[in-house]
């Protein structure tokens, strides 16, 4: 059987031959001579689908962010001027929109301290909403429609007044109907709590749900992580808080399980009997470039204890009894528990030095304006 994955990030289809054991049989839909995993927009790992309200379902979108009936969804990207918002969040929202996975009535609001008009936000994000989709129709038309739903409100992170003004703008777009609000915190962790305090006080939905997505890192260590949770819970119920690490949903990472457990060639060979050593290499060909949070958290907290351990666990775990999140988690935990503790003398830490390649000067880590000279 040929299994084709659609990647939300690149919109491309990738196919590979596989044999699916019963535990790994997703809903397959026959389309022509191929089978595709049927991506159901209503599916979500935590039972809180984004489109818990009516979906667009391919109907023509005429609402331009204003509602005349039904339920509305407002997605507020806090830190809209930043790197993550530009690189991942707006493109991901557009991907959802493109696939009709957003409700019929939705509005996206960018919020950060930088001064910007709606038009400037649209221009900024349109740079990263490229139609990277091979052979897909009407992408630029859909992109324009998506951009028309995007607005911007400048404000301070701890200001009740600024969030109250955002609330007024949201209400106008929501047209007095049942409104759900999703705040995506794409900001450095040191401002999480003040945003949640002001947003929940001044910009919570008056009649629908209010949810908050918090980007990792969730603190510097377990103590500060627990403190962060305690602080957030002064304003929110646990059910309103969604902690995100995008590697959990990254296509490359998800495909590892399929590659391992659904592949007749790899499955029997995937053991220490046949594999002598494994190296996980994470390499980026760019510097900090806009990632202002980077220096204070460091590379270990940024990607090692989360992204790379995630990959290691998926790579080394035994087959889970089912695809249930708990079963997968249990297998991962077994791997992590059985690992030898890392000793400091086994770790080598380095820092990029400035150098030249083909006559071009590459800056050192400390040359980056966002990094302290003493880092
Ligand atoms: N970039 C990435 O690839 C990833 C980032 N993350 C996490 O997502 C969050 C956002 O990341 P990213 O967009 O890269 O971060 P940025 O450093 O780009 O910050 C986002 C925005 O927050 C505001 N900001 C920056 N520094 C401060 C500060 N000290 N105090 C108050 N506001 C500040 C700025 O907006 P303005 O000045 O306009 O208010 C900035 O545009 C971080 O928690 C990061 O750890 C997680 C995964 C990947
Ligand atoms: O979470 C993070 O991940 C990105 C790398 O993500 P990828 O999907 O492009 O592999 C990294 O650049 C960023 O510093 C980190 O916070």
UniProtKB/TrEMBL annotation:
Q: Cross-referenced InterPro entries, in alphabetical order?
A: G6P_DH, G6P_DH_AS, G6P_DH_C, G6P_DH_NAD-bd, NAD(P)-bd_dom_sf
EC code(s) of this entry: 1.1.1.49
Q: Which EC class does it fall in?
A: oxidoreductase
Q: Name one Pfam family in it.
A: G6PD_N
Q: Name one GO molecular function term.
A: NADP binding
Record's keyword terms, sorted? Carbohydrate metabolism, Glucose metabolism, NADP, Oxidoreductase
Residue ranges occupied by any Glucose-6-phosphate dehydrogenase C-terminal domain in the UniProt entry: 258-373
Q: Where is the Glucose-6-phosphate dehydrogenase NAD-binding domain?
A: 76-255
Q: In which pathway does it act?
A: Carbohydrate degradation; pentose phosphate pathway; D-ribulose 5-phosphate from D-glucose 6-phosphate (oxidative stage): step 1/3
- Transmembrane ranges, per UniProt, are none
Q: Give yes or no: UniProt keyword NADP.
A: yes
SUPFAM superfamilies per the UniProt record, alphabetical: Glyceraldehyde-3-phosphate dehydrogenase-like, C-terminal domain, NAD(P)-binding Rossmann-fold domains
Q: Does the keyword Oxidoreductase apply?
A: yes
Query: Catalyses which reaction?
Result: D-glucose 6-phosphate + NADP(+) = 6-phospho-D-glucono-1,5-lactone + NADPH + H(+)
The Gene Ontology biological process annotation of the record reads:
glucose metabolic process; pentose-phosphate shunt, oxidative branch
Q: Which family does it belong to?
A: Belongs to the glucose-6-phosphate dehydrogenase family.
The name this protein goes by in its record: glucose-6-phosphate dehydrogenase (NADP(+))
Organism listed in the record:
Zostera marina (Eelgrass)
